[in-house]
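job 3f2a | input accepted
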Amino acid sequence: MRQIRAAEPNAVDPIIILGAPRSGTTWLAKIFDSHPDVLYLHEPDTVLRTSALPVICRRSDIARYRPVAYEYVQQLITTQTLKTVGSLPIFAKTYRSRAAHCARTAIIFAVHAFGQITRRANAGARVAIPEMADRAVDRPVRTVIKSVTLRGSAGVFAAALPHSHFVFIVRHPCGQIASWARGFTTGRFLTKLTLKKSLIEEILATDGAEQHGLDSVCLHSMSEIELLAWHWGLFNQKVVDDVADGARLHVVSYERLCERPIETARNLFDAVGLAWDRRAVSFIGKSTTYHGPYRYYGVRQNTQAVKEKWRHELDTGDQLRIMAIAQRFPIGRFICDAEEWGRDPTQVMKVG
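job 3f2a | predicted structure (352 res):
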């Protein structure tokens, strides 16, 4: 047995899935993980953090931080803990024998069980999980990294990884904000006071804040809903503008993925050079027709119902305020207007 090495094809240039929290990144990433040739790493940047890179990298600083970003990604690729490789469900792989798959899966479930028994969900998050790759398999392995914290520095990672593909999922601003509000209600996120402070700091750190005339005074006068809408627009637009190579940036609407999951996933696989596989079809079928209890972080949902929940959770006034702010950005106009979905998103959403 061995660890999959960076020297293997496509390991040093991973496919990176980006999106905001509550935008469908986990589900989309699991669709990629269902492919038998994919080595999937779930949010390794939350396990191996770095202070050497800014959370929000301005365009003027991209060249400066490019070498640091490259080294950081190589470290992320080797970060294989319960958190990064133990997210459920677990899929069989071509680079792992059946016996190795069963043994590794048993280890993952055992560590998960330990966390449940001790009532500490993150008790085993940093426990190392052996890869158990098969020496005899020579098929190329495609490394896929998923993150909800790297949007602010997407430009420097794109510069550092000139052959990588970036899959960027964007959810309707009302849907994402409604889901965030659900998290605040259940105590999963920050308090409103801490949230407001955090949102203002992050907004002011972007290149777009000055362009839109946003300063500390006007931001402090806004409601949380308005701040969330500005944050949605500024950060999602930043990814599109900073990843300059449109051929490597693949933007997908969460709503379109919900409506046409197989077609959308197949197009994404083709765009990044992955052969379509029946196992992806099987997972998509199971993950889109679930009718059991709702799980906030679950990858199995009734997707048609979930994507429209915001229409009943947000009052009309909040919906209008959110969309008025979001549509100040090309990406907001693209996401809020379903008629635009058939066009090339990297052209529709590019500033200028």
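job 3f2a | The chain has one domain: 15-348.
job 3f2a | closed
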